[in-house]
Design goal:
Length: about 280
């Protein structure tokens, strides 16, 4: 499993910001684990965004009810990443393990995080909503995509502050985890910290594919799979190692070709675009 180079608790979150610029490279990982202590300050939010912008990776676990239940303001942070945490609890009357609030998840996007993943147990968790682009348009270099969804029969309990009661409504297709890129850094969030629990193998680390899922998350955040393949990400560019026929390489690097295209990477990108058409 991926080795964490930076892991801190929420109430000591400022400790990571004393690291030097040379340490805030893409191998660093900031973990915010189900905070239930105090809201983030403006300075802390700014520091986390700068950390991610400069290549740091952020892993966030939140819990049922989101900010409302925990008394925190993580939405003020993740809004910059393009989504918000919803104040709800996901449950499934039919597809669950032991309890309705321990639903089984089988709907996943095709992504390195979901490789070999078939089922998860999503115990006592909340869901997310992707914001409209204009709501976080200040940051244009932000990419976000759902990773897992609730089943068609799933439901949610949502707290109504007006009547101070929980309401039930459909949670069909609700987003349960998200991954994305913020400038040069990556982020991932899931709405249940219970996936890490060793207390009960029915819903925690040992349940279904939960362990492999988190291992995939860490591998993706830290770029281990890409590194093994000789792949590096630089914003919207990808640097790769590849084998090219010697004669084709000599032709592509000939003076007349380079005079027209500029460098070898432009030649390759031009060829790929032509093939894509």
């Amino acid at each position: 499993m991926g080795k964490l180079s930076k892991s801190i608790t929420y109430d000591k979150i400022l400790e990571i910001f004393s690291i030097s610029e040379t340490e805030t490279h893409s191998g660093n990982l900031l973990v915010i684990g189900s905070p239930q202590t105090k809201p983030l300050s403006i300075d802390e939010i700014y520091s986390i965004l700068e950390f991610a912008k400069n290549g740091g990776n952020v892993l966030i676990f939140v819990d049922e009810g989101g900010d409302m239940s925990a008394g925190t303001n993580i939405n003020e942070l993740v809004g910059h990443f393009g989504f918000k945490i919803l104040p709800n609890i996901i449950f499934d009357e039919k597809l669950h393990v032991l309890k309705q609030v321990w639903p089984i998840i089988r709907n996943f996007e095709d992504h390195p995080i979901t490789n070999d993943i078939h089922e998860l147990v999503y115990a006592s968790g909340c869901s997310f909503e992707i914001l409209e682009r204009h709501e976080y348009a200040e940051f244009l270099d932000v990419k976000i995509r759902p990773i897992s969804y609730a089943s068609d029969g799933a439901k949610m309990k949502v707290f109504d502050p007006k009547i101070k009661q929980w309401k039930e409504t459909s949670a069909k297709g609700a987003i349960l985890s998200l991954a994305g890129q913020f400038f040069h850094g990556r982020f991932f969030i899931i709405g249940t910290p219970s996936i890490l629990s060793s207390l009960n193998n029915k819903y925690g680390w040992g349940a279904k594919d939960n362990q492999l899922f988190i291992e995939n998350v860490l591998g993706w955040l830290l770029g281990e799979r890409e590194a093994a393949l000789g792949v590096s990400f630089f914003g919207d560019k990808v640097q790769v190692q590849m084998r090219v026929d010697k004669d084709m390489f000599r032709w592509a690097n000939s003076p007349e070709i380079l005079e027209y295209f500029g460098d070898f990477s432009v030649v390759v990108n031009h060829a790929l675009k032509r093939m894509k058409k």
